[in-house]
Amino acid sequence: MKTSDIEALSIYPEHRLTCHPTTAKIFERFQDISNYKIVEGDRVIKVYRDEMTDLQKEILGLLSMAEEDYWENVD
């Protein structure tokens, strides 16, 4: 956050800001996001992914993680 000149993130309920988010609070922002796969035999037919919020995308950016990299590690 310091490197990106971000003073606070709205991690807490009701979008309250924090200057020092804990790992637990950051993980909470991702707890309800899911992907769904339709599988036939050993083949994945279709993948559906929940839309990430702007905050989730910002957190991934701060972690230097692309959204696609996040989804690769969700399984």
**SS summary, helix count:** 3
Helix content: 25-40%
SSE ordering: EEHEEHH
Residue fraction in strands: 25-35%
Overall average residue pLDDT: 90
What is the general shape? elongated
Number of strands: 4
Rg value? 15 Å
Q: In the residues, how many domains can be counted?
A: 1
Oligomer: single chain
Q: What does this 3D model show about the protein?
A:
- It is a single chain.
- This protein is 28% helix and 27% strand.
- By secondary structure, it is of the alpha+beta class.
- A two-stranded antiparallel ribbon has the order 1-2.
- Strand 1 (9-12) and strand 2 (16-18) form a beta hairpin.
- It is elongated and about 50 Å long.
List key phrases describing it.
4 strands; two-stranded antiparallel sheet; alpha+beta; 75 residues; 28% helix
Write the layout of secondary structure elements.
Elements: E1 9-12, E2 16-18, H1 23-28, E3 35-40, E4 43-49, H2 54-62, H3 67-72
Antiparallel strand pairs: 1-2, 3-4
Give a brief description.
The protein has 75 residues and is an alpha+beta fold. The chain has 3 helices and 4 strands.
